[in-house]
What does this fold into?
Amino acid sequence: MKKVFIDTLGCQMNKSDTERMLGILSHFDYEETREEEDANLLIINTCSIRQLSEDKAFSQIGTWGRWKKKGKDIKIGFCGCVAQQKANEVFKRAPYVDFVLGTHNLYKLPEIIKRVESGEKVCECAETNIANVDEKDEFGIVRVKSTNAWIPITEGCNNFCTYCIVPYTRGRERSHSPEIIIAEAKRALADGFKEITLLGQNVDSYGKDFKDRNYRLSNLLRDLNALDGNFRIRFVTSYPTDITDELIDTVVELDKVCEYFHIPMQSGNSEVLKKMNRRYDRETYAKIVAHVRDRVPDVTITSDFIAGFPSETEEQFEDTLSAIDEFELDYSNVAAYSPREKTVAARWVDKYIPDDVKEERFQRLNNKVKENCLKSNKKYLNRTMEVLIESFYEHKGEMINTGKTRNNKTVHIACDKNMVGQFVNVKIASVKTWYLKGELV
Ligand code: SF4
It folds into this structure.
């Protein structure tokens, strides 16, 4: 067997693509190694969401290039979102790269490997938008060992938010067929996974592109919920205005579907939201969140926000801080605005916010998220909650099991017994900013 090392940057979608690449490569005599020095094939799976991640990708492969220059017999692949965007340009910046493979062409990996092994340099980055997105699944998946299996249900996005590169790197939205998703879920459950997370840039629009059937996310949740076994189901990410009453009712009704919604708001100011090309204003978002909270008991709602979007004023930024408080958002991912080539907002150079202001807003946003996360955690003090144990390790001489509640709160339990993969009931004894501390009951 030859050895492949894949370095994955960015989001869960990229991690899922890496699992698929490992699945494909396992049919061509490659097994995974976590030691890059041992690998015959080195691949970087890149992320283009921020300039920083793009720069990191090029600096990372510089080391591999130096090994190659010194005569080490290795092949180097540059894959993922930056590859999709830069295509042949990658060879100019990193001439030692053997192949560049974009997100649309993952299923061509077998053919690429053959060509690269015979000494060719290959670039496969055409925008295919193939109707059959299931094609890349035919080789199976080599999953990272954990309790949770990520299963992509849609690829790409049609929303074209003005700051976002995703529609350019991952193309228009396409849904995987329910048969493929259900088969994948069955395989993951048979392999011992205890949680299925359905993945997509906008999971709520799942199935909109099916021409021959009316089958949406709530149908898929029902079919997965009917599978045998004790397991949980989650789904991320939700676009605010695509969350339907039917979906909310399905979450309430189905016992395996967890009480957790990730609903990115991005800004708390309606003017900024309009410039971002988000299809809702502050009031609409408020109504959606209130409705979800009203219908789903104990729900956790998390969000994403951007600090320093072009032309954002101090007052507009403060609307974001107040939104986190007002909507009692349990946790939010935050990022400073990073202009991305091809996107509309990147052209508004004269409206860019100076870096020091952006950084200061980013810090204040982080502090607000911390404050609210602690406030949200305090709600669970003295409550008994079901936890799925995900990891077991030693910390300062104490053995700790960590896991997640149904509503996605992290819980630490001091206990000598390794309980990874088990569902346990835990009483919350104290709370920290980022996690709850529990005792087995
Ligand atoms: S919804 Fe907007 S932010 Fe999310 S992936 Fe699509 S374009 Fe990007």
Summary: Residues 157, 159-161, 164, 166-167, 201-202, 239 surround iron/sulfur cluster (CB under 6 Å). Residues 289 and 327 are 7 Å apart (CA to CA). The radius of gyration is 22 Å. The chain has a mean pLDDT of 93.
